[in-house]
Amino acid sequence: MVKPPFWIFSNRSHRFKSFYRLRIAAIGGNMTRRGRPTLRTIANEADLAVATVSRALSDDPQIAPETRARVRQIAASQGYSPDRAAQRLRTGRTNVIAFLLNPHEEILGYGQSMIRGLTEALRDTSFHLVIMPVFSDRPTIEPVESILRNRLADGVIFSRTTPDDMRVRLLLEHGFPFVCHGRTELATPHPWVDYDNFGFAYAAATRLIAQGIRRPCLIPAPDGMTFAQHLRMGFLRACGDAGIAGEVLSGISLDDTPAAIQAHIRGLISNNSLPDGFVCPGEISAMAVHAACSDAGHSTRIVMKHTSGMADIIRPHFDSIFEDLAEAGMLMGRFLQRAIAGEPPQTLQFLQPAAPIAA
């Protein structure tokens, strides 16, 4: 067996040193033989104290904005990332925001839009976003209990609130930062971002009535959800103001599959009890209603809530009202950071207004 040249193994060799430097450059750019860049590495290049660099990377407002920007630039150029395990031991913080994501199959683009808004809110901060799925066959409180028990995050965001939400109660009892998408009826104030479903339902029913509809109908949200009450009250208020007896469908809800909604509408057609106009709180329910009516040769008026770009390409075109989920995600991300910093919950509440109807 032929032995390889000695210079391959000798770090005293000029050739080896050149080879070693090239490999380091290829693998890690500014990485040194000693390993990953540290705060001291950045401090030396920036000519700042290590403590100043640490505060700048934590976005401390007492550090000048230009200094923070320069430190972040140096950190990025060196491939610096904080040692999160050491950071957690030192500060007790994880720098993690947990987003508990329900399936939300009834709302087009819910998860994608929310995540887009959340990532924008956490951009250029020390926080990382972690998505935790919420399974429909498991208690919704389980992931919250896991986060509290194992200290998996510094704050949590979740949706589909109920008037007496046990997740909200538990987090309030533990003093753990959170923001929920939706309101509760609890006496203790807490951070939330919500959409004006009362305003949506009122405007949608009013539009149908103005178009000559005399038997308007609401596809309701699932019983028990806070926003289900808001939808129902807004719809019935508009009908009452017009002196019309509106109908809230029973036996079906926004959470049902398109096939189930279609089957229910076909049953109404068979019984000659089909309403002449529908308020649909989502694109999926609107398309299901239209499909059932169209297949049976019936025409009906629909006003729907839309959360995606589908409203522009659905044919026939429906009147619609937009809910900006990306904005909701961004607001919740910002509110949660402020809650973690200790800001009072009364200042961390926002109701998104229902947009004008897009004809």
Automatic annotation (TrEMBL):
An example of a Pfam family matching this protein is Peripla_BP_1
InterPro entries (UniProt xref): HTH_LacI, Lambda_DNA-bd_dom_sf, Peripla_BP/Lac1_sug-bd_dom, Peripla_BP_I
**Name this protein carries in UniProt:** LacI family DNA-binding transcriptional regulator
Alphabetically sorted, this entry's keywords are: DNA-binding, Transcription, Transcription regulation
Query: What GO annotations for molecular function exist for this entry?
Result: DNA-binding transcription factor activity; transcription cis-regulatory region binding
Record PANTHER family: LACI-RELATED TRANSCRIPTIONAL REPRESSOR, TRANSCRIPTIONAL REGULATORY PROTEIN
Q: Tell me where in this chain the HTH lacI-type domain is found.
A: 37-91
